[in-house]
Design a protein that fits this description.
With about 325 residues, the protein is an all-alpha fold. The chain is built from twelve helices and no strands. Helix 4 packs antiparallel against helix 11 and helix 5 runs parallel beside helix 12. It starts with 5 loop residues before the first helix and ends in a 20-residue tail after the last helix.
Amino acid sequence: MGSMEVQEIATVPQTPEPKQPEPKQSNLNAEHLPWLQVAFQLRGSVIPTVLPRVFFYATLGIVVSVLDYFNSPVALPILGSIIPNVVFNLVLGLLLVFRTNTAYERFWEGRKCVETLIVAVRNLSRHLRSVSVQSPIEREEQALALRLLGVFAIVTKQHLRREPIAPELAPLIRQAQLPQTPDTPMSLEITLWISDYLQRQQQQHRLHMSQLTAMNELLDHLVAAFSGCERVLTTPMPIAYAIHLKQLMLIYCLSLPFQIVADLGWWTGLVAALVSFTLLGLEEIGIEIENPFGHDLNDLPLDEICADLRQHVERLIPTPTGLAPENIDLIPRNHG
């Protein structure tokens, strides 16, 4: 966790090229598409998720219509004074609105934490680049510190997605001698390594105390952003609230065909499908956006963000060989 050995710097094993993430359509781009194209777009919508339940309520409506056609006593006018009741509708509507708003607050909080991480990485990489180093070993150590900032974003993304550390990052992790323990996330190990690196630079009089203080504050911002993302990920919706909302929706959707069949007849199944699609869709939107760190179209574009940060820190690394920064891989190669 401390200083980096000369042998470790000089003998980094060759690793394959890191895979670039496939670009995905963002929500912002979708808003600029033609209105009808967005309205009938399945990718990113909740239709595939709610469709089986919508078909169930539509089928129930059709069955009730058939029974009513054969004069079975399925029409229950008493439900007409219960289901459309103002209090019942108000409670159900408020629960759905609160569910969606709470989920969007979690989404927006996750976006703000990611933005804090982006700003801290860019500012800290700029400060690290300003450290005056002379020997090749010191330049390698500075380059490693910069690259670890890009790695910080990647391992944070993988931690939030419950994914293992990518094999392409293993050489850098070994080079920095970072311990891989299940109790401490790799993101925090990287901040400890950079903190030790900054402390050594200050002890060798390459950093003023004011510079060290400013960089440590940026490290604190990285830890705060990481912790904020964890808070969004690990704070569940209260189970009692989720249960009660689903119970009310179940009562409403199951009772609706019996209440409207006397007036609508064969249209009961269609109306039941439309009403259930509206209610189930609102609930599913809340479920979809409450975790913004996944791979879905409605999640934050973390792959693109991490790729941009990697390119940013790579451009800051000195290239004494004369190669353009964009031609230097994130993973150092052993050309010996």
